[in-house]
Each structure stands twice: as C-alpha cells, then as structure tokens.
Amino acid sequence: MDLGRCGYSTSVGINLMVYITPITIETLQFDKVQEPCGYHYKKMEVRLSDAEKVFIIHGAQEGLRADGRSPFDYRPITIQTGVLATTNGSARVRIGSTDLLIGVKAELINMESVAVYRNRLNFFVDCSANATPLFVGRGGEEFADELSAALDAAYDNNYVLPDLKKLILSPTHAWKLFVDIVLLQCDGNVIDAAGLGVKAALKDTEISEVIVRPADEGKYTIDLPDDNTVWKLDISRVPLFVSVNRLGTAKIVDNSLAEEACTRTSVWIAVAPQFVSDTGHNKSSQSPVKHDNCIITFMRQCDGGTLEIDSLEEMINIGLKVVGQLHEALDRRLIDENWMAEKPLSTFLQ
C-alpha cells in the first residue's frame, strides 16, 4: 500500500454497538453488548437503478469493483498535517473524494477533583452541508453523532494514549483536548478517513510545558516558562479504523458512495498496535481486546441484516489485516515528515 504521493502528503447488521469487554475472537462470544444511544447509522443514499446495483454487486463478487479496484484496495489517500495555524495540531485527509479537516485544541481548565475528572479526548464532528445535500439543515447531525460516538468509544481506555496522565497538571488543573472534525465532502468510507486524520492530527499536536506553583488555601497557579517549550503526544498506540463491508457475498473495504448504497451490512473495527512490554494499561470502562499483534478497542456492526458467525469472523480477520497495513504505511509517512527540513506552507483551502 503506497502512501507516498507528493510533498509531505500521504496516500495510503444487527444494529448494535459492541463495547468490547473481554471477548474471545476465536469463539466470538460477546460478553457485553450495549445498545446504541438512540440513533442508527444512516447510509449516504445515492440514486441508483436496479441494473446499476446489480452491476456493482456482481462485479464485487467477481473480485473486480466498478472503479477497477480489487476487494481490499483503497482509493488514493492524501494526508496533510499542520494545515491550521490556530490549533495545537491539525490534519486534512482525503480518500478519493471524501475530504475531512481535523483540528486538535488544548484548553487549560479548572476541575473540582482529579478522582471524578474524565481524562479523555473529546470528539465533535460537523457535517458540512456542502458535503452532500442530505446534510442540509440538521440532516448531518445523526451521522455526526454516529462518528463521534465511535471515535469516543475507541479512545475510551488508558492504553491508546499513555501520555494522558501528563495532561493532569495539578489536583485542580488539567489540559483538556478537543478534537474537531469537519466533513467537507462525502464520497463514502468516512470512518476510515476520520481515524487516519485523528492520528495524524495528534502526531502534529504540540502542548505547552507549564510551571505549577502552590498557592494559598491549597490552590495552585499555572505559569508558562520563559523558553515556552512544548511536548508531543505518544501516538504509537493510537487506533485506526477500518470498515469491512458486505456486497452480496463479497467482502470489501473502502466503499465508495455508490457501493455504500448497495452494501448489505458493515463492520467497523478500531485496532491499535500491541507491543510486547504493554501491560497494565487497560483499566477503562471499555477494555481493549488482545488479538495477535494488535488490540481491538472498538467494534460495531452497522446497517441492517444479520451475519453468520463464520462471515463475521472472516470480516474481522480482513479488517485486522488491512488496518495493520494502514498503520505501517501511515507511520512510515509520519516519520518521513520529521526528517523534512521545512514543511511547505499550506492551508486547508489548497
């Protein structure tokens, strides 16, 4: 999977949400299933004739998709980082014509107690009305809630971001990280693009070092050092998403908008890399699941329909294989950026 494109750009069911609290992949025995929070995934509908749908489905079953890709091929992927000067970190991601803008902001807050503070990323997704006519008015709110809920669940553990504890500055002060995602254009497979963009934006995020000084009455004051130094998050365990979709009997990844209209059911999987020395990081409300050299932090079946256990297991294995390739390619490209003497000036309007 080639992510190199140009400059520092990169190319690479049952309606239930499964918050995985130990699950055995080999037997697929789900110990805990939580119902969705009152909303369901809504496909970005495209007007297709029956003949067009038959052409797309039969082509996928023969291993040749309408745009010439094989079942597990991605469309060209472009990723740019540092595109917004007003954020602590930012990225823009394009998969085919799907276009997302991601910004990370760090806000210094006062809290009553560390014991009750939820030290997690806070996701907000906005679906621009320009992305598709279905988003005009409040049409994109349901889809935005779906994406933000999936991202929130995937990051809701202590494993994926070990530097979260560094955000606690004092018993009453902390950095709160907000991740804002704007969907500029929709051409299918938004969840994969969002996962790639969040990881790239977190890699670009810089947080200021501060000096904590005790004050009167058990309070604390926060000051900036004279040299204004910054530190970056460890993103080596950040998960990526992959959506494995079923068209007829075929299983494919990276659906186009036309293919989404023909999809019977999809499985969203978020997978984080696992390292040999990783122990004691899994205390969370949704415990990750270890599998081979990776950890599943989120899995959900979307759309309608049902899946046999064999089909579900096959789709999970496809997702694990594909997301591993995405991790390797994206990590290589983000490392290459560190060796660049100077990034080309760019904005999200380019």
From TrEMBL:
Residue span, Exoribonuclease phosphorolytic domain: 74-207
Name under which the protein is recorded: Ribosomal RNA-processing protein 42
Database matches in Pfam families: RNase_PH (PF01138)
The organism of origin for this protein: Onchocerca ochengi
Subcellular location: Cytoplasm; Nucleus, Nucleolus
Family, similarity comment: Belongs to the RNase PH family.
A single GO BP: U5 snRNA 3'-end processing
Location (main, coarse): cytoplasm
Superkingdom to which the source organism belongs: Eukaryota
GO molecular function annotation: mRNA 3'-UTR AU-rich region binding
SUPFAM superfamilies the record matches: Ribonuclease PH domain 2-like, Ribosomal protein S5 domain 2-like
UniProt xrefs under InterPro entries: ExoRNase_PH_dom1, ExoRNase_PH_dom2_sf, Exosome_comp_Rrp42_subfam, PNPase/RNase_PH_dom_sf, Ribosomal_Su5_D2-typ_SF
Keywords: Cytoplasm, Exosome
